[in-house]
Amino acid sequence: MKSQKCLKWGIIPQVLGHGNSHFWWSFGLLFLIGCVSTREPQTSDFPIFPPSYSQEIYGITVIDTSGHTLQHPFHGGFNLPRPQLIDIDGDQDLDLFLQELTGHLKFFENTGTPTEPSFTWRSDRYRNLDIGEWYRFVDLDQDGDYDLIGETIFSYLRLFRNDGSPTSPSFATPLDSLPDAQGVPLFMDRQNIPTIIDLDCDGLLDLFIGRVSGTVLHYESIGVDESGLPKFELVTDRFEDIEILGMFATLHGANALSFHDIDQDGDQDMFWGDFFEAGILLISNTGTCEIPNLRNEPIAFPAGNPIKTSGYNSVQFSDLNGDGTHELFFGVLGGAFNPSSSSVDNFYHMDPTDEGLELKTKTLLSGIDVGADSYPVFADLDGDGDQDLLISNKISPSDYASATIYYYENTSVDGELKWEQTDPLDIEGNYNLAPTLADLDDDGDLDMLVGTWNKGSLYYQNVGTAESPNFQLIEANTVILTRGSNSTPTFVDIDDDGDQDLFIGESSGELNFYLNNGNPKEPKFDLISDNFEDIDVGRRSVPRFVDIDGDGDQDLIVGREADGVMLYLNNGTAQLPFFVEHGTIDAPFPLLAVPEFVDIDSDGDLDIFSGGHGGGLLFFRNLKF
Amino acid sequence: MRNLLSAIVTVLLGVTHVQAFAQTHQVAFSSEILPIIQEKFAPLLARETGLSLDSWDGLMSGSDYGEVVIPYDPKGSLLIRLATELSDADSLTSVTSDISDTDLMTVQSWIEHGAPNDDGHIAFAEAEHLLYVCIQGEAKVAVIDMDTNVVIRTIDLQALGFTADARPHHVAVEPDGSAFYVSLIGDDRVLKFDDNLELIGQMPFERPGMLVVSPTDSLLFVGRSMKAVNPPQRIGVVDRTMMSSDELDVFFPRPHALAIDPSGSYVYVGSLAENRIAIVDHEAGVPELQSIEGNTHTLVQFAVSPDGQTMVVGGQLTGQFFFFDISNPATPTLDETIQVGMAPWHPVFSPDGEFAWFGNKMGNRATVVDVSDRRIVGTVEGLSEPHGAAISPDGKTVYISNNNLNGAYSGQYQWRDNTPVGAIAVIDSETREITKMLEVGHNPTGLGTR
Asked: Which of A312, A340, A507 sits opposite B249 (nearest CB)?
């Protein structure tokens, strides 16, 4: 079926300039108003539209620079993990829950044994339970299974009661604004993660809420209501006169509380992570189980060799390996001490030994994780005929002054997919690097345009070869946006004239279109529109072009900060495109999605890898073929 | 005249109620109210030195410690609180039994309707120099007349439909005083009030914090508070007319400190978590970053000198105080750092630009810095977790809010709820002595002046 619609793109009212001369990237005027025939997406046998994608965490062997195989290569990365280990399915081993984003709870099932744990990813949104800003599993109604509490807007307590069993949880419709014994909704500042235990061994649960002031609210259950839920009554707003002031004796923070009997004297000691505390504070319980005494000075834990991170550490002790001793696990949420430094190393596992706590890893769930705002692109960088991966970040965790472009070489053999990380590209000095590659001088190798946070898009000419690239910056060819930051360039032959045209996304969510009025050897990019087709996807647009409906022209896909990657079908032709919004691509993209299309399994359809907020990579396999 | 009267009546009572009252009851202050106060309430006011109960003027002028009556706010008025909320531990409690319920209701009703004099005049309706105070712990905004240094009005945010945990945190005022803005860090909103204290606009905003108004266009800039595990790394750019916002990425986490250069071209943003300042050309939408050496400072809040040449900011964790030369606003230059210690909080410049004042939150004091000499020239002790700072237009009076969450300031009275009372320290800028502690409620924070 065809219809006639007027082409909208390609019109600008005036020449836009920036005051510096760009002989190569210049601005011009182009009028391409016209009417074109439009078509519905092809529904024949190749490819099938719409495609169907399945999220996969595994399936490709990924080796890091140390030679280790990443266990969960496509978990998407973590920046501020809030972990909790519990046996949710009653199989006697500890499963792992982890919160990275507000409202979302990741679930990794322990598919190993009680003594040899092995986690398998099951969900990024466990049962679609919206947990708000924090969560805790606790048997609140003391019926032998785990209930789930979290935050409901703003700063109140939401309960997902487990109406199932210890082996088969079933969470009821959430009860919002859980009240105290007087019927007043329990309130806890949403940045402060509370904890619930029976501290004084009286069979009744105690609720502890850390305050911004460094004090601790203590509620104690005074029995249960008619539905079996505890009735919490405020005991004191200054529990044990605790007043945490952080390592620099200051206030105005955020905290995470937990308890564990660290000295094995039969009572619970308190652990405190804080925005203004780079480590973990321990307040020893020198009383008994029945009569706790936590009126002791907080000390940096462990004594003698205290932990030091970027701060705001969320602690849990669990016997994951079943040896009878509890190991230390904590997520680094990132406090006052340069959170960028913990954008990769943020999920610690430490094992007690005779010499003290031994660091097992800073990345308990190993996966591709380059920090934050990961930005992947695929290209054959070594001329061996397969697609290699470049993946960059917002800022290097180890270099305050620059982002990094990491390189994973595709070393797959005979259908066994394998990537091996090698040295990063020698490109630095800017943030939010966003590379795209094309042969821009028709010399048979791939050149690179690299978007940046606030310095436009930088041109790196490959003065090496297709097999051994050597990228050199040609500053004169920098492309500066008319307004805004976060340049995200991509090349496409949008008019099917045999050369590469240029689109650049940006922070505003709009698109910039530059038509190549040169030729494959000497491109000349003229700005046609800095608000292409009036497309605005919100914030942080990332354009990509593929023929997703198999009709022989390039469709437009735009990643963005918000949920969902936008699809604009080209209902025009390969020569005269006409883009029509077609909703979002049906796959659970992360925030700040950077979709990259590649037929990674050589089955004839395009799979998607997406960068995102977490700094890792998500893999959506196209299931149509 | 900016008519505070009608707005407050509307906000607190509703027009229907007011009209009904006016039609049915005309209180004569001299004959109906003053005798009750003189005979029944006077013993309760024994500690209020300087208070004259001879006349309406005397009563409304307050005492050496501040106001006794806040028009339209009986619950917040000391007169009523003394009769209803004193702790048994306070020696004045025995006096309250002499006040009958009828007496109490009569006085309450009078205050509720503005505490007018015999002619129906409402006190401070013509007040010009106002200090807006966020009462974060009580979901209120107090208004202080800087000419008399008494609380003259209260905005009860719960009465406007916001939650008890709305937590007003910071205030920014239009250059011409025609409106002001309040960030609610608990309810995730930015509010706009006109000069009649009427709520005329609001918008949702994720984790709002500090506010600054552009002096040259209709934009309001909004930073982020601590009220989230991971607040957005952007600032809000709000059209003050429409109360709609866009956002600008500033790259680093926890953007908190906020200021704008006098030309309105560049917004400065500081991080609580990294030693970075973003210099944001908001027209071009392109920020630049500048780093500060040393351990994490945690930049709390900026202030820009009246001549636009200098910007200052304190480091919460290091106690350092930074002076930036912003004569070229696009490229601030750090030209001096001094040690002031104990968590320097919100700074403010004197009108002549000679001094910068700020509270030291963890030191329970205020510090005065000579801007040209880059040195401390004075301190004021006796504060309790000082937070916001403001200065009167004539430069004679400095105001510093005191959170007093830990109760270092004990207050005049012992109240039944035992909550530490926050206060505004009124400081003579010449003598650098506290002349008043205005007890305004639980946890006062940000200040703004008109």
From this structure: A507
